[in-house]
Amino acid sequence: MNGDVETSVAIPGGAVQIYATEAIDAGEAERRRQEKRVQLEGEVARAQGKLANEQFVTKAPPEVVQAERDKLERFQAELEELGE
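^ that's the sequence the OP posted. Answer follows.
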């Protein structure tokens, strides 16, 4: 393949050949990563706002409050995975 870098990944029953190519746009990948970061930051802020609302925490059923805490934790973990 024109000197492209090749690697193999073993899978049950065989292997998959992976070829490096210039078809991957690093700028586009970074743009998508930034979009995801902005989305996650918005979700984190929304969940934090809900959980900071005393009315929500005291009046909502405990399972709803816990679900919101779980979402916040998941969003924060996804954001952390994206890195700086």
